[in-house]
Amino acid sequence: MLPTPEIIGASLVRATERFALELTEPQPRAPDWTDFEWRMARGAAVMHGVSALLAGRLRWAGPTDWRDFLQTQRQQTLLRHRRIAVVLHDMDRHARAQGLAGVALKGAALHALAIYSAGERPMADIDLLVQEADVERAAASLTSLGFVETGANWKHRIFEPKQLSAQALAWKSAASAPPFGEHEDYPIKVELHTRIAERLPVTAVDITAQIFPLDAAAGLNPYPSRGALMLHLLLHAAGNMCNRSLRLMHLHDIARLAAATTAAEWGQLSNTLSAAKGWWWVYPPLALIDRYQTGLIPAQVLAEARRACPRPLRRLCQRSNLSSVSYASVSIPAFPGLAWCSTLTERVRYLRERILPDSTQAATRKVAAAELWALSSPWTHMPQWRRVLHWLFRRPRRQAPLYIAQAALQRPPR
To answer: How far apart are CA 5 and CA 333, in angstroms?
Structure first.
């Protein structure tokens, strides 16, 4: 029997904040945690995607099971990275042969810039951006590489390997429990984008023009600049903060890139922020970075972003920490993104769409319902009217962190 959600949530918060500290300023001593708390620490590390990072960062050892878990996760992350590198190479080769230009996004770009070394940062999937006119050719190219389209939402189309191993098929159908955390045998998905946008929370913020290179050549291209990559990471983090699904890995991506950004590059980004007053969403992730690593973000950039941010959202940022905007917060509030609405019209639209989801949100939920944590969750299959009643009269719990907590308690570290 699982402990209460309140106990699980408190342990996840404790581990989340400790890991945020460790990645910023490694501590000399291990925390004094119970066996249950160490298991929840494994869950938090997986939830935030930082197990492999912690393996090379911590100055203390901790219990034997904890050490074994981190080393295994680092090894599996490295093995999976090698598989992903092969897929990226094949995608680049096919795209060059077909005269097709694309951009390998986020994790692939960070590795290409040597922001991370192999085995440090996990990659759940490969994100590929192509122009709208080329999307069908890109889809055909993925099909020729052995992928099949399995779903879509308003942001991207999802492709998975057509030939799955027997083990992967068993995991996908929930016939057997998958390994806990990273594993090299998990299927490598490709998410095909034609634009880079996030709904914050109802109006889409689109930065595709800043991401796709004007002089893109056939094959997989880098971002036009480090500033463009930074903008994408910030927008991705903002979207996850708005939905309270931010991961420590998202913050660490920004911090690593910020540490490698020159004064001239910061100046270009600051000038862009000054000229584009609509980029109010940059401040929340920057403010969160500044909370944990004060001084890493130049004061001028932080000030420019803050001035563009609406006052209600600035106030929310003052009292937010990583735990409050991540899955470490195990409750489901009725309207988590309300402070992100900048006008009365947006607030009304947001309230309406939370109560009566449109077709876009329904498609997004359908994709989420295929995740392992959602397959057996009553909340996933609950009618909308019952969800609304739960919001009004109960405190519903988020199934993803509880699923991870249960896996951390029931499965061995290896």
So the answer is: 15
Q: What six digits make up the tokens of 342?
A: 């900048």
Distances in Å between the alpha carbon of 274 and those of 235, 296, 383?
17, 20, 45
Contacts of 47 (CB under 8 A, 6+ apart): 12, 247, 326, 327, 328, 400, 401, 404
Please name every residue paired with 101 in a beta bridge, in sequence order, or none if there are none: 219
- HSE at residue 188, side-chain half, CA atoms within 13 A, is 22
Rounded to whole angstroms, the Cα distance separating 193 from 189 reads 13
Structural domain boundaries in the chain: 5-324, 325-399
Task: For tokens 């509030």, name the residue.
Answer: 333
Q: Return the CATH architecture of domain 5-324.
A: 2-Layer Sandwich (3.30)
CA 302 → CA 242, 247, 287, 307, 321, distances in Å? Answer: 19, 21, 7, 9, 17
DSSP state of 334: S
d(CA 50, CA 70): 9
Summarised one tens digit per residue, pLDDT across range 147-175 is: 999 989 899 999 999 987 666 666 666 65
- Supply angle C-alpha 270, 271, 272, rounded to 5: 90
Q: Round to whole Å and give the CA distance between 291 and 296.
A: 10
Cβ-contact 312, 343 below 8 angstroms: no
Identity of residue 346? E
How far, in Å, are 158, 216, 243, 293, 341 from residue 349 at the CA level? Answer: 28, 38, 16, 36, 9
Render pLDDT for 291-312 as a digit per residue (tens, 0 to 9). 999 999 999 999 989 988 999 9
Give me 413's structure tokens.
Answer: 């570290």
State both tokens at 185: 């045998």
Annotate 1-13 with b (16+ C-beta within 10 A) or e (fewer). eeeebeebbbbbb
Separation CA 191–CA 131 (nearest Å): 14
